[in-house]
Amino acid sequence: MTDSRDPADEPLSDERVRALAALRQVFTDNELEHDEISPTSLTVELPGEKKLKTPCRFDVGRHALELHAFVCRRPDENFEGVYRWLLERNMKMYAVAFALDGVGDIYLDARLPLAAATVEEIDRLLGSVLEYSDGSFNTILELGFASSIRKEWEWRVSRGEPTRNLEAFRGPLRLDELGSPEEG
């Protein structure tokens, strides 16, 4: 017989209370605004440089703390190349791994036993999410959205629009061959 009760409806164990308190402490210490979307789920957005914001959801379950951080929507092209790069990258990462949802959107996921959900370990986990999300973002875009980036570059150049946020792709995607802002 299966238990159909929602774990969020039952009284919280001491371990779950400690994990929730550690999450709140990390968010406060790092001056990160968060939302409590249920008694056992919290959301936060991590600020980045290449990827300006990484939305994260933490779920404190009966036995584990789960983290799901959105990295990028489903690639427009070169799925095999993107997903292969993500899998190869997984072998070098600490605490988190790239994952896909049912439509192919890219996430970073992690699970920690509740006993390991301390302030220090949650802070390390957030650092990993920020490093891997922000550090991988441009590569994912280059591999999975090259045609869209080229079209956007051409459109902006043809209209004399700024290309500042596309400059990171100028060399890797050979955007200069499509014209430069000075010429447009």
Compile the SSE list and pairings.
Blueprint: H1 14-29, E1 34-38, E2 41-47, E3 53-60, E4 64-72, H2 79-90, E5 97-100, E6 106-113, H3 119-144, H4 146-159
Antiparallel strand pairs: 1-2, 2-3, 3-4, 4-6, 5-6
Helix pairs in contact: 1-3
Q: If you had to describe this structure to a student in words, what would you say it looks like?
A:
- The mean pLDDT is 90.
- Helix 1 crosses helix 3.
- The protein has a six-stranded antiparallel β-sheet with strand order 1-2-3-4-6-5.
- The protein has two domains: 10-144, 2-Layer Sandwich (Yope Regulator, Chain: A), CATH 3.30.1460.10; 147-178, no CATH class.
- It has four helices and six strands.
- By secondary structure, the chain is an alpha+beta fold.
- The chain has helices spanning 14-29, 79-90, 119-144, 146-159; strands at residues 34-38, 41-47, 53-60, 64-72, 97-100, 106-113.
- 37% of the residues lie in helices and 22% in strands.
